[in-house]
Design a protein that fits this description.
Largest sheet: 6 strands, mixed
Shape: elongated
Number of helices: 8
Number of domains: 4
Radius of gyration: 30 Å
Distance between the termini: 38 Å
Number of strands: 26
CATH superfamily of the largest domain: MoaB/Mog-like domain
CATH architecture of the largest domain: 3-Layer(aba) Sandwich
CATH class of the largest domain: Alpha Beta
CATH topology of the largest domain: Molybdenum Cofactor Biosythetic Enzyme, Chain A
Structural class: alpha/beta
Bound molecules: adenosine monophosphate, magnesium ion
């Protein structure tokens, strides 16, 4: 049997990053930056006011108090977007709004709450230190500094920063195009009534969703019967632009021959017994040079093996620097796992107590218990050398969920 790490290594060796493209900023959410970004500008680009108030010279207002205000002449009104025409001299001020450039001569902004307007002048009711309430040019991002590293995933904050730098197009790896197929004569689509011997196809939906969540474009072909010609045709009909294929079912010993026969015709294929539970039978190969992941049929096996093999490979194709889920250490609250000798992935719920994460299994761990993936916050990974884990022992947990709903159920 093959170690999980060995299977991961082979899969990752077989994929390469997709071509670099420069996409409009708004299309980049969830993609990975392909080049380092160095700022061509200072952000903010000029000293500007952090408050609505008056731009003044700190020296003029040094002794200001409510009981002895300092009266200043107001030269002009400066809304955001306007450029000052005046220079602030001794005894003078400019009325300034948040974001407006600080006029020459001024070194401090006094918030409007600390002032009182009087005709053409203003009374300053409080002394402020020199430099107060001014946002300095470059205090957020300095011109010439490295802002973003290649391989990071572009989320809302990164996209905002890129917009601020003036990058209307962004170097990324293009979105992988995936084709998803479920194999099995027993499968029917969700909209059909159940009838004897049939079950609804879940895998093509979970796989398509996992691919999309990871950043791929997906064509979900749905169900292909256990028939060599049907599978062969489905794979061959796909156009040249596919980057990866993901199938489920038909790779365990019983069905093995079907998929094998087809894939020997249209590509090449390795069948692996990976030393893991769930997910032991796996197939991996290529169709017309594009990787094909033959995941097992059981719904949990599909999701667990997607996490271990497909998602990291997809992230490599997308140019990600980090291929794997974050792993935390947690303390087992209940016994889990069976015996040493095989890597086990236990769906666990996590909670926080004191400084620790506590992990307990979601319930039955069968490879068909898909509801365990709904309940699970993560996968406790019990390596080959780990036997049954007892309460109080520490386990590594791959974190699958960050959204708060999952944590309150
Ligand atoms: P197989 O690997 O094809 O022998 O399938 C293993 C188990 O997973 C069987 O019980 C199948 O009925 C089930 N299975 C296979 N494909 C799917 C699917 N797309 N959705 C739900 N269950 C499936
Ligand atoms: Mg099958």
């Amino acid at each position: 049997m093959m170690k999980v790490e060995e299977a991961q290594k082979r899969v990752l060796e077989a994929v390469v990053p997709l071509p670099l493209v420069r996409l409009p900023l708004e299309e980049c959410l969830g993609l990975f930056l392909a080049e380092e970004v160095v700022s061509p500008v200072d952000i903010p680009p000029f000293d500007n006011s952090a408050m609505d108030g008056y731009a003044v010279r700190a020296a003029d207002i040094a002794g200001a108090e409510a009981s002895s205000p300092v009266r200043l002449e107001v030269l002009e009104d400066l809304p955001a977007g306007k450029v000052p025409v005046s220079e602030v001299g001794q005894g003078q001020a400019v009325r300034i709004m948040t974001g407006a450039p600080v006029p020459r001569g001024a070194d401090t902004v006094v918030p409007v709450e600390d002032t009182e307007r009087e005709g053409k002048g203003t009374s300053i009711l409080r002394a402020w230190k020199r430099g107060s309430n001014i946002r300095r040019a470059g205090e957020d991002i300095r011109k010439g500094s490295t802002v973003l590293q290649p391989g990071i995933r572009l989320g809302p904050a990164e996209i905002g920063v890129l917009a601020g730098l003036g990058m209307a197009r962004v170097p990324v790896r293009r979105r992988p195009r995936a084709v998803v197929i479920s194999t099995g004569d027993e499968l029917i689509p969700p909209q059909e009534e159940l009838r004897p011997g049939k079950i609804r196809d879940t895998n093509s939906f979970t796989v398509a969703a996992m691919l999309r969540e990871a950043g791929a474009e997906v064509r979900r072909l749905g169900i292909i019967p256990d028939d060599a010609d049907a599978l062969r045709n489905a794979l061959l009909e796909e156009k040249e632009d596919v980057d990866l294929f993901v199938t489920s079912g038909g790779v365990s010993v019983g069905d093995y021959d079907l998929v094998k026969q087809v894939l020997d015709d249209v590509g090449r294929m390795d069948f692996w017994k990976v030393n893991m539970r769930p997910g032991k039978p796996q197939a991996f190969g290529s169709v017309r040079g594009k990787p094909l992941f033959g995941l097992p049929g059981n719904p949990v096996s599909v999701m667990v093996s997607f996490e271990q093999f497909v998602r990291p490979a997809l992230r490599r194709m997308m140019g990600a620097a980090a291929l794997f889920r974050p792993v935390i250490e947690a303390v087992a609250e209940e016994p889990m796992g069976r015996s040493a000798g095989r890597t086990e992935f236990i769906r666990v719920r996590l909670r926080r107590e004191g400084g620790d994460f506590l992990a307990r299994p979601t319930g039955p761990q069968g490879s068909g218990i898909l509801s365990s993936m709904v309940l699970g916050h993560g996968l406790a990974v019990l390596g080959e050398e780990v036997g049954r884990v007892q309460p109080g022992e520490r386990v590594a947990v791959q974190l699958l969920r960050a959204e708060p709903e999952a944590w309150v159920r």
